Amino acid sequence: MSDGSEFMARTVLDSGVQVLTEKMPSVRSAAVGIWVRQGSAHESIADAGISHMLEHMVFKGTARRTAAEIAIALEGLGGSLDAYTSREHTSFQARVLDEHVPEAMDVLADLVIGPLITQDDLDLEREVVLEEIAQVDDTPDDLVFELHAEQLWDGHPYGRSILGTQRSVECMTAEKLRVLQQKSYKPNNLIVAAAGRVEHEKFAERVDRLFDSCGSGDIMDHVDPPRTTSGGVAYETRESAQTHIVFGSEVPGHSHSDRYPLILLSSALGSGMSSRLFQRIREELALCYSVYTYQSFYSVSGVSGVYLGTRPSTAEKASNAVREELLRVAREGLEEDEIERVKQQVKGHVMLSLESSGARLHRLASFALNNEPLTGLTELLSKIDAVTVDDVLRVAKAYFDPTRHLELRLGPEC
Known about the structure:
There is one protein chain. This protein is α+β, with helices and mostly antiparallel strands. The protein folds into 2 domains: about 210 residues, 2-Layer Sandwich (Cytochrome Bc1 Complex, Chain A, domain 1); about 180 residues, CATH 3.30.830.10. The chain contains 15 helices and 11 strands. The radius of gyration is 22 Å and the shape is globular.
């Protein structure tokens, strides 16, 4: 498989739009997307969830297309259209045959720069988002992460729900959404990327034409670092068959060099059946069906932790087992042979994922979103290989001691 670096290119247009492409000569398709530097971490408490609502509303119709026409525009060509909102950006993406890239970009640009955003459409879509909030509330293994984030980040925007609250959603107006779209959906805040059978110059010229009349704007992606995070043990009572437990502690942001030893530590602890937590808590102690580690790296901070679900009668035993494994790795790090095994595991996951144009698209966008240089596969793998036993021990001591973690349990009273 190609390293990919020789096929990657970046252009910053006069308008401020960043355009990135990666050519994949062996495929007959392309994944294309637009990222807007606007997410839940940029919102006020009163407007919580407005970025997510705007993501929904652009699909309700534009000056050129109805909602039904948007839906059929790419699906009628065998392609797909999707979107999501995160803490620091909103993304609109399409997957199409290479010959249909012009149509895909036209639809995506139309969504970003031409939504109508009427009050009647908002009144309908508000109910859809309220159902989405209710769905999370009824799904404890989703809800536990929402509750954990809220308490861990101790008032920082990273802890707010991306969906917003019932109250904030009910108070949204079409005018507020139009103001947000006109302020943040501007070229200086846009990253446009494509991976697949694409030619960079032609793609960049097309993007330039699509956004040439949008004007510029200020970059809206600043997030203040959190002043403090919470630790200890917190309980949320909910009638359910299981107690859902999340551990998590603050770690550095995406561009920090500690990201690589953190990824190796997380993989050793809870990625796959060979991981320490799976072998100890599921195989040896039979205390759960699902146990895994997770990590999220934002621009100015991040979180690393553990999830498991267990019956209420075994919650204390399972929690103690997680603490023991966290403490052991914090004190001892990883042996060199285990580090080498995990390096192979992580590198394998990376290489397999990059057979997908969608994964390569997200990697391209990540470079721009995090203001990082384009990095080929060879350089990325070398950064993983460069992690030493001492790096792992230092990072484990700094971030994995269970006394640093907030543990949140969601389930029935014991």
